[in-house]
Amino acid sequence: MRHLIRTNDLSLEEIQELYTDAARFKAGHIVPLLQDKIIITLFFENSTRTKSSFEIAAKRLGAEVVHLDVAKSSTKKGETLVDTAMNLDAMGPDAIIVRHQNAGVPKILSNHTKAAILNAGDGAHAHPSQALLDLYTLKEHFGDVAGKKIAIVGDIKNSRVANSNIELLSRFGMEVILVAPPQFLPKTSLRFTHHLQDIIDEVDAIMSLRTQTERHSSQSYASLKDYASDFCITEELVGDRDIILLHPGPVHRNIDISDAMLEDPRCKVLQQVANGVNIRMAILKKLIL
């Protein structure tokens, strides 16, 4: 039993094992490996894709899934997060999938449970399963990704998806280039630019991010339309270039990516969603069995 808090919790060999399992699941080789296992989902922050993806992954492998309604949980009655985790752990679940608006919560909980803790997103810190499915999608398209260049575009400073992808993609030999307005860029040693046109002719992939308006302490743009005029991924920008497009979702249409590009075969957003279920199946198998 172990935990998945960051992508660095897994070795390169373990990640490749996950991808081998995910490919088998995608090909239809699914058996109830987790029958009689119990998984709790503990989401303190709203989620549709990640929560549904983990639940479908668990059920496809035969596990029982218990969702804790946080709005009615004991944390609303003054119980601490650690107390909640320890009480849930005393019931004997095999894994607890946690999403929280504050960075560090899954790590703290992992110190107080026998169950495996899976980080489904904590603040602007990490989202390991998203990065793992993103890399899997890239590898499906390119094969070997070493030497490929990817532009991560948008609200990087507030993005746990960006953090986890920077950590993971770099380990596999990709060059990550950050593209954002100055107020959306973290302090970084990576190459960066404020203009998409600067890098569009050299990148092999673009990862667009959702603008995390709920995490901004003050308004950074007069409007999202103003932001889109500089950073929306459009047909005019991409042209006929051999570039694939990713996004963790949910997509702000015509803010992050134009309607036309979402319909373009180079856009892999729905492929990411499909791959996410298989990757999360592989993660659950690894951590629980």
Summarize the structure.
This protein has 289 residues and is α/β, with parallel strands linked by helices. It contains 10 helices and 9 strands.
How would you describe what is shown here?
By secondary structure, this protein is of the alpha/beta class. It is built from ten helices and nine strands. The strands form two sheets. Strands 7-6-5-8-9 form a five-stranded parallel β-sheet, covered by helices on one side. Helix 6 links the parallel strand 5 and strand 6. It starts with 11 loop residues before the first helix and ends with a helix.
Low-confidence parts lasting 5 or more residues at pLDDT below 50? none
Tell how many strands the DSSP assignment holds.
Answer: 9
Shape: globular
Report the biggest beta sheet as strand number plus sense, adding barrel if it closes.
5 strands, parallel
Percent helix: 25-40%
Order of helices and strands: HEHEHEHEHEHEEEHHEHH
Number of helices: 10
| Widest beta sheet: strand line-up | 7-6-5-8-9
The portion of residues forming beta strands comes to 5-15%
Average pLDDT across residues?
93
Over the alpha carbons, how many angstroms does the gyration radius reach?
19 Å
> How far apart, in Å, are the first and last alpha carbons?
8 Å
Secondary structure class reads alpha/beta
